[in-house]
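Sample A.
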Amino acid sequence: METKGKKEIKGRMLRLLSVDARISMQDLANSLKTTKVNAYNAFNELSGEYGLRFVPEISIDKLWKWEFIKRARLRTKRGILAEAVEELPLTGFGEYLVLVKFVGKKPADEEVVRAIGNSYAPQFAAKAKGEYDLVIYVVERSYEDAVRFSDVFSKNLSKYRMLAYTTRVWGNFGFFPISNKLIEQFDIFDTYKNLLFGLNDGGRNTFTDIGKRFNQGPAQMLYAYDRLARTEILKRVTYFESKPRDNYLLMAIAKVDNDKAFEDSRNGWFVKLVKEYEDKENEFVFMCDTPSPRGAVVISELANKAAAGKFLSKMKKGLKGAEISGMQLTKVLLGGLGIRDFDMRYTSQYRRLERGRALPAAAEKGLETVENPNALD
């Protein structure tokens, strides 16, 4: 049986890795007030127990910066405004949800996967039980492209009747692990793209090993890491659990029916969440805002149906001015969720509330640039 002290070390380690998965063994040991060997052993146990995968967390909505810079540099100064600005609408990506309700007979899982096809756009798909039967998270260059993906998907399942809704979303907490297929579409300098490939395949890999794969040196990878972090495209290297402890996935949808009541209650709700998850494993996986209907979507990982009911009840009490419903994500068909025990002090919401003095100031967390995070010497 695991001792209380060992369990606490693992819990604190998950929090540290959630905001900076490239933290060195020495810094892990110092933060946990233990030896480097103990930290190393706990890290390996934790990685195996939860199936930790270390990956980059990317700001999808900020990718346009480096895409635009790359395209602008290929032009003369005189042509930048005339030509590069014309391409501005074609740079960058957005996040979308495709929500599907089948009418009558439903397709088999294999048919759904085949219908999704080989497109780079879908990063996650799961069967659902409730208001919708299927949820697909899509990253595309425009709303029109996202709708086009949805149309092709529907046509691939033409023998079934379905209602498909495509909505733009703005993620404000959590992430979905992205595919290398999507990274391939980023029109950024090769060194930056190579770094993202390397981190996506192993976020704690050395810069030397990542560089070797692309015939580049560690200094080039370190430079790219620093530049992407400074421009806030690379939020952090983090982790997700491929073998999570809990397996009830709840998707809650908030549809606003009173803007003022919703906005007035939202900050207070988040402050309560920060306090609640100080000493408790964070149940939130992903949150995003939706424009139509105006509101929000929240995905959470919970122990069971009873825990999901309590979670939904607390959400309804905390968020006023919105109609809130929940449904279970029953089976993941594509990709995965960014399930992790994230430290709420490093969310964008916390920073905003911190500036308004609704929450105490939290220390800034810079990204580690150590060559080999796993080193013991």
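Sample B.
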Amino acid sequence: MQYIVKPRAARKIYTFYGNVAKKYRHTYDKADYKRNVRDALSSIYDIECKLLRCEPTIGRWKGYHMANTDKWYFAYTFDNETVTVVDACHAQNMHESNK
């Protein structure tokens, strides 16, 4: 299976953990940042294998499939053997107003 991660989805992950690093700069270091980003990006490769397809719970993802880990939700399309991740959202930010 082939996986494509669109820039918007990757940017959401990098930005989320960048904001965590700013907020907790005395306890959250570069190694934490790198590990969290790597784990989030790696979890994408479980879509359509371990992470089951479900209907999106937020309106802006209408028309996409949704999959989630314990921390991240992903909006994606599935065409033959290609998963294209178009957006990502951390679980604590899953609500309609998040752009």
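B remarks: The longest helix spans residues 7-23. The helical segments are 7-23, 30-43.
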